[in-house]
Amino acid sequence: IRPEGCTWGMPQYSVNEEFRLVISEIPAPVVQQVVSVPQPGQTVPQATVTYSAPLVNIVPQDPEPIFHADSM
Prior knowledge:
By secondary structure, the chain is largely without helices or strands. 0% of the residues lie in helices and 0% in strands. The protein contains no helices and no strands. The termini are far apart.
């Protein structure tokens, strides 16, 4: 059921009229963020990453004869 004066279930308002959304009165939590800005003359430590070469395991194999389907 559509309220009287509303078109297609939308509230009636004009283009010149200010459209305001209803906002809940629950206060939003305030989160404080601290960002340190280096001052001129201060050195910023550089990030370093240490890694080792990849470990490759090789299993020794004995050479085996290759059989072809034609020789069987």
